Amino acid sequence: MEKEKIARINQLARLAKERELTPMELAERAELRRQYIDDWRAGAVAVLESVRIQEPDGSIHPLKKKQGGIK
Questions:
Q1: What is the pTM of this model?
Q2: Contacts with 9 (C-beta within 8 Å, 6 or more apart), sequence order
Q3: What is the DSSP letter of 52?
Q4: Which residues is 61 bridged to in the sheet?
Q5: Is 60 strand, coil or helix?
Q6: DSSP tag of 54
Q7: What secondary structure letter does DSSP report for 5?
Q8: Tens of pLDDT, residues 35-67
Q9: What is the third-level CATH fold of 3-62?
Q10: Which of 9, 12, 18, 43 falls 20 to 30 Å from 34 in CA-CA distance?
Q11: Rounded to 10 degrees, what is the CA torsion of 32, 36, 37, 40?
């Protein structure tokens, strides 16, 4: 996520502490938060997909996905 968007999330958080946000600001904050979470999740999935497990016998295999996925 771009630094400008993170800065805007922080700015909206500061504003929310000072006053009630307008409906447009609430919608913008919700969208920015959704983008942040989606980006974070994509990064976490990329890390987990690169994990390899080494068994005691020396064999190496990728981490298996859990059935059902992320909820």
A1: 0.72
A2: 29, 32, 33, 36
A3: E
A4: 53
A5: strand
A6: E
A7: H
A8: 999 999 999 999 999 999 999 999 999 988 877
A9: Helix Hairpins (1.10.287)
A10: 18
A11: 170
| DSSP conformation class of 66 | P
Rounded Cα distance, 20 and 49, in Å: 41
| Residues 11 and 28 sit within 8 Å (Cβ to Cβ) | no
For residue 69, what is the DSSP state? -
Beta strands in 1-71 (DSSP E): 52-54, 60-62
Q: Are the C-beta atoms of residues 41 and 70 closer than 8 Å to each other?
A: yes
Buried-exposed string 4-21: b where 16+ CB fall within 10 A, e elsewhere: eeeeebeebeeeeeeeee
Domain locations in the chain as residue ranges:
3-62
